[in-house]
Write a structure and sequence with these properties.
Elements (H helix, E strand, L loop, with lengths): L10 H13 L19 H17 L5 H23 L9 E4 L2 E6 L23 E4 L5 E3 L11 H7 L37 E2 L6 E2 L7 E3 L2 H7 L5 E3 L1 H10 L5 E2 H4 L3 H4 L1 H21 L2 H6 L10 H4 L3 E2 L1 H9 L2 H19 L1 H4 L3 E2 L8 E2 L6 E3 L6 E3 H6 L5 H20 L1
Antiparallel strand pairs: 1-2, 2-3, 3-4, 5-6, 7-8, 9-10, 11-12, 13-14
Length: about 425
Amino acid sequence: MSETTAGIISPLQERDDCLLNAELGLTEDHFSLPEGHFGMTTTEELEMAVGTCKQLILETPESSVERRKALVQKLVQLRLKLLDLKEGPVEHDGPGVRVVLGHKFVKKENSRSYQHHCEKCCTLIWGMLQPWYRCKKCGFHCHGKCLNSVTRTCASVKVQEDPTYILAICPEVGLMSQKYRCADCHSKLPFDGYANLPKKCDYTGYYYCRDCHWGNLVPIPARILHNWDFEPRKVCRASKQFLRLMEKVPVLRIQDINPMLFSFVEELSRLEKLREEILIMKKYFLACKDALDSGILLQLSERQHFVDNSDMYSLRDLLDLEAGTLLDRIGEIHTLFAKHVKTDCKLCQAKGYICELCESHEVLFPFDTSAAVCEGCAAVFHWHCFKKTGRECPKCQRRSHREDDSANTKTQAN
């Protein structure tokens, strides 16, 4: 048996590994430490090493099989260490916590769980008589005896790895492409009666056995984005758990998916305008000590993406918009923000504009509905005044004349 087979690192391998660490710019060998320890290594150093490792893989000739293999192994190790460092320690050693396929199962005992069914054997969980487990991430329930036979990966893993929706409406897959097996547990699909026929998931388009598809009803993102259709459809258990975890993740850029939706849904168009104006007001708050001290932007803490941008939406945003609660709430926050800038704060008031196209002394702000903003210099005017001039900004004209005069002066001097 060779040293490699026996699991012993030879001096040659150790030397090559040290050289590889040096090439990657690592100050120490992270992988000789016990699991979960990183010494003095920083996140920045690991990120740099990952980038360097990927570059070395691309530059290494295909004939250098051993070197490419070593680099790929090192890249996988670096990414795992970086992920652990960012996410913190995994809770696999806590009391009553078991980790299976990404699930974080918490043990439940002496509980009245008559409303739950085991998602592995599909029988009732008698919580008063037997221990059972529930995943803290996706809500997967199962008996203690079924824990080690769980085959479904936790939906939270997919959310972390690929937080995107299927944007095709119930894709046509077909049983033949599935080889007549369940898309989740891969068991052979039965055809022995109407009550035992395979069930189709309206989200993925795949067919499932009745153990993996309980007929849960949820709104489908693709139908909402393409048809503004919020009617719940039947989905499998895995899709239900994934959609629940993705509900508040802002990954939908409607302008790229279906821009016509803004024309047909008035509430969506109004919400977009409110968000754009809130982002303008955000600039005032970031320069205002009173606004920062009062934490006025925390009014949008439940929807942080509304403070960061104006074009990303979560599924929960669209559901609340259809329910009629979101637009009213954002309207109230918009009014509160505008009141601070235009009435309550003297510092923010001083950053207003006066329309130089008319004799009015009204103080204008870029987020006012009656205001027009020049795209060239960001000057603010009354909309009707700006329209009369053919949308020609006097400030931009003066700047253009000065540039022409300066160019003529230089020409005459030469």
